[in-house]
Amino acid sequence: MEHKLPELPYAYDALEPYIDAKTMEIHHTKHHQGYITKYVNALEGEDALLEKDVEEVLRDLSSVPASKRQAVINTGGGYYNHRLFWTILSPSKTMPGGELLEELKKEFGSFENFKDVFSKAAATQFGSGWAFLVVTEDGSLKVVSTANQDAPFDEGTPILALDVWEHAYYLNYQNRRPDYIKSFWQVVNWDKITEYYNNAK
Q: What is the dihedral of CA 84, 112, 146, 199, to 10 degrees?
Protein backbone atom coordinates (compact mmCIF):
# COMPACT_ATOMS: atom_id res chain seq x y z
CA MET A 1 0.00 0.00 0.00
CA GLU A 2 1.01 3.61 -0.44
CA HIS A 3 2.12 5.38 2.72
CA LYS A 4 1.42 9.07 2.22
CA LEU A 5 0.59 12.09 4.31
CA PRO A 6 -3.18 12.30 4.86
CA GLU A 7 -4.90 15.54 3.97
CA LEU A 8 -6.37 17.46 6.87
CA PRO A 9 -10.19 17.74 6.90
CA TYR A 10 -9.87 21.49 7.64
CA ALA A 11 -7.57 24.41 6.79
CA TYR A 12 -4.40 25.04 8.77
CA ASP A 13 -5.94 28.18 10.31
CA ALA A 14 -9.29 26.56 11.09
CA LEU A 15 -8.43 25.80 14.72
CA GLU A 16 -7.29 29.31 15.62
CA PRO A 17 -6.96 30.86 18.13
CA TYR A 18 -6.60 27.57 20.02
CA ILE A 19 -4.00 25.99 17.70
CA ASP A 20 -2.30 28.42 15.36
CA ALA A 21 -1.95 27.96 11.61
CA LYS A 22 1.86 27.99 11.51
CA THR A 23 2.09 25.25 14.13
CA MET A 24 -0.48 23.16 12.25
CA GLU A 25 1.35 23.56 8.96
CA ILE A 26 4.78 22.68 10.35
CA HIS A 27 3.39 19.86 12.49
CA HIS A 28 1.58 18.31 9.53
CA THR A 29 3.96 18.85 6.61
CA LYS A 30 7.27 18.49 8.44
CA HIS A 31 6.83 16.34 11.54
CA HIS A 32 4.11 13.95 10.39
CA GLN A 33 5.60 13.65 6.90
CA GLY A 34 8.97 12.98 8.48
CA TYR A 35 7.65 10.05 10.50
CA ILE A 36 5.99 8.51 7.46
CA THR A 37 9.16 8.82 5.38
CA LYS A 38 11.31 7.34 8.14
CA TYR A 39 8.81 4.51 8.71
CA VAL A 40 9.02 3.47 5.06
CA ASN A 41 12.82 3.70 5.20
CA ALA A 42 12.91 1.63 8.41
CA LEU A 43 11.03 -1.18 6.66
CA GLU A 44 13.12 -1.10 3.48
CA GLY A 45 13.17 -4.62 2.06
CA GLU A 46 10.20 -5.74 4.17
CA ASP A 47 7.66 -5.64 1.36
CA ALA A 48 5.06 -7.74 3.16
CA LEU A 49 5.05 -5.35 6.12
CA LEU A 50 4.93 -2.29 3.88
CA GLU A 51 1.79 -3.69 2.25
CA LYS A 52 0.03 -3.54 5.62
CA ASP A 53 -1.46 -0.49 7.29
CA VAL A 54 0.77 0.93 9.99
CA GLU A 55 -1.84 0.16 12.66
CA GLU A 56 -1.77 -3.53 11.76
CA VAL A 57 2.02 -3.57 12.00
CA LEU A 58 2.05 -1.79 15.37
CA ARG A 59 -0.53 -4.22 16.75
CA ASP A 60 1.72 -7.15 15.82
CA LEU A 61 5.27 -6.01 16.50
CA SER A 62 6.43 -9.62 16.75
CA SER A 63 6.13 -9.73 12.96
CA VAL A 64 8.78 -7.02 12.63
CA PRO A 65 12.43 -8.16 12.55
CA ALA A 66 14.05 -7.51 15.92
CA SER A 67 16.73 -5.32 14.36
CA LYS A 68 14.05 -2.97 12.99
CA ARG A 69 11.47 -3.14 15.75
CA GLN A 70 12.46 -0.07 17.76
CA ALA A 71 12.67 2.06 14.64
CA VAL A 72 9.17 0.88 13.69
CA ILE A 73 7.86 1.66 17.19
CA ASN A 74 9.32 5.17 16.98
CA THR A 75 8.49 6.10 13.41
CA GLY A 76 5.35 3.99 13.01
CA GLY A 77 4.03 5.42 16.25
CA GLY A 78 4.61 8.95 14.99
CA TYR A 79 2.91 8.01 11.72
CA TYR A 80 -0.15 6.46 13.39
CA ASN A 81 -0.55 8.81 16.38
CA HIS A 82 -0.58 11.94 14.22
CA ARG A 83 -3.00 10.36 11.76
CA LEU A 84 -5.42 9.80 14.63
CA PHE A 85 -4.75 13.21 16.18
CA TRP A 86 -5.74 15.21 13.10
CA THR A 87 -9.09 13.45 12.84
CA ILE A 88 -10.19 14.16 16.42
CA LEU A 89 -9.75 17.91 15.96
CA SER A 90 -12.46 20.15 14.52
CA PRO A 91 -13.24 23.85 14.21
CA SER A 92 -16.89 23.01 14.95
CA LYS A 93 -17.92 22.82 18.59
CA THR A 94 -19.16 19.34 19.53
CA MET A 95 -19.94 17.52 22.76
CA PRO A 96 -20.11 13.82 23.61
CA GLY A 97 -23.51 12.22 23.98
CA GLY A 98 -25.32 8.90 24.10
CA GLU A 99 -23.51 5.76 25.17
CA LEU A 100 -20.05 7.36 25.07
CA LEU A 101 -21.09 10.11 27.49
CA GLU A 102 -22.71 7.57 29.80
CA GLU A 103 -19.57 5.44 29.75
CA LEU A 104 -17.39 8.48 30.53
CA LYS A 105 -19.63 9.27 33.50
CA LYS A 106 -19.52 5.65 34.63
CA GLU A 107 -15.73 5.39 34.47
CA PHE A 108 -14.78 8.85 35.70
CA GLY A 109 -17.79 10.10 37.69
CA SER A 110 -18.60 12.95 35.31
CA PHE A 111 -17.53 14.40 31.99
CA GLU A 112 -15.65 17.18 33.78
CA ASN A 113 -13.81 14.64 35.92
CA PHE A 114 -12.81 12.78 32.76
CA LYS A 115 -11.39 15.99 31.30
CA ASP A 116 -9.45 16.59 34.52
CA VAL A 117 -7.98 13.07 34.49
CA PHE A 118 -7.05 13.30 30.82
CA SER A 119 -5.59 16.80 31.20
CA LYS A 120 -3.48 15.67 34.15
CA ALA A 121 -2.16 12.68 32.17
CA ALA A 122 -1.16 15.05 29.37
CA ALA A 123 0.32 17.70 31.66
CA THR A 124 2.37 15.29 33.76
CA GLN A 125 3.76 13.19 30.90
CA PHE A 126 7.48 13.75 31.49
CA GLY A 127 9.21 15.02 28.38
CA SER A 128 7.73 14.25 25.01
CA GLY A 129 4.74 11.99 24.61
CA TRP A 130 0.99 11.59 24.26
CA ALA A 131 -2.19 11.23 26.28
CA PHE A 132 -4.86 8.84 25.03
CA LEU A 133 -8.37 7.69 25.83
CA VAL A 134 -8.55 4.01 24.92
CA VAL A 135 -11.24 1.36 24.77
CA THR A 136 -9.92 -1.70 26.59
CA GLU A 137 -10.57 -5.32 25.63
CA ASP A 138 -13.52 -5.51 28.00
CA GLY A 139 -15.07 -2.37 26.47
CA SER A 140 -14.28 0.02 29.32
CA LEU A 141 -12.61 3.41 28.92
CA LYS A 142 -9.15 4.20 30.24
CA VAL A 143 -6.84 7.22 30.14
CA VAL A 144 -3.19 6.42 29.46
CA SER A 145 -0.06 8.36 28.56
CA THR A 146 2.91 7.15 26.56
CA ALA A 147 6.45 8.40 26.10
CA ASN A 148 7.88 9.57 22.79
CA GLN A 149 5.77 8.24 19.90
CA ASP A 150 4.70 4.96 21.51
CA ALA A 151 1.20 3.94 20.43
CA PRO A 152 -1.01 2.56 23.25
CA PHE A 153 -2.20 -0.68 21.65
CA ASP A 154 -1.03 -2.74 24.62
CA GLU A 155 -3.62 -0.84 26.70
CA GLY A 156 -6.49 -0.77 24.20
CA THR A 157 -7.77 0.92 21.05
CA PRO A 158 -7.17 4.69 21.09
CA ILE A 159 -10.14 6.92 20.28
CA LEU A 160 -8.81 10.28 21.54
CA ALA A 161 -5.21 11.51 21.39
CA LEU A 162 -3.32 14.61 22.46
CA ASP A 163 0.21 15.31 21.30
CA VAL A 164 2.28 16.90 24.07
CA TRP A 165 5.58 17.06 22.23
CA GLU A 166 6.80 20.65 22.30
CA HIS A 167 6.54 20.90 18.52
CA ALA A 168 2.74 20.63 18.92
CA TYR A 169 2.41 23.86 20.88
CA TYR A 170 5.67 25.75 21.41
CA LEU A 171 5.26 28.49 18.79
CA ASN A 172 2.09 29.71 20.46
CA TYR A 173 2.30 28.50 24.06
CA GLN A 174 6.08 28.24 24.66
CA ASN A 175 6.48 26.28 27.92
CA ARG A 176 2.82 26.67 28.95
CA ARG A 177 1.71 23.12 28.26
CA PRO A 178 -1.33 23.39 30.61
CA ASP A 179 -2.64 26.35 28.57
CA TYR A 180 -2.31 24.33 25.37
CA ILE A 181 -4.17 21.42 26.97
CA LYS A 182 -6.96 23.74 28.11
CA SER A 183 -7.30 25.13 24.58
CA PHE A 184 -7.33 21.61 23.12
CA TRP A 185 -10.78 20.97 24.63
CA GLN A 186 -12.20 23.76 22.46
CA VAL A 187 -11.41 21.90 19.23
CA VAL A 188 -12.12 18.26 20.08
CA ASN A 189 -14.26 16.45 17.51
CA TRP A 190 -16.59 14.39 19.70
CA ASP A 191 -18.56 13.19 16.67
CA LYS A 192 -15.45 11.45 15.32
CA ILE A 193 -14.50 10.11 18.75
CA THR A 194 -18.00 8.67 19.13
CA GLU A 195 -17.56 6.94 15.76
CA TYR A 196 -14.23 5.47 16.91
CA TYR A 197 -15.80 4.39 20.21
CA ASN A 198 -18.63 2.55 18.47
CA ASN A 199 -16.18 0.81 16.14
CA ALA A 200 -13.83 -0.17 18.97
CA LYS A 201 -16.47 -1.77 21.15
A: -40
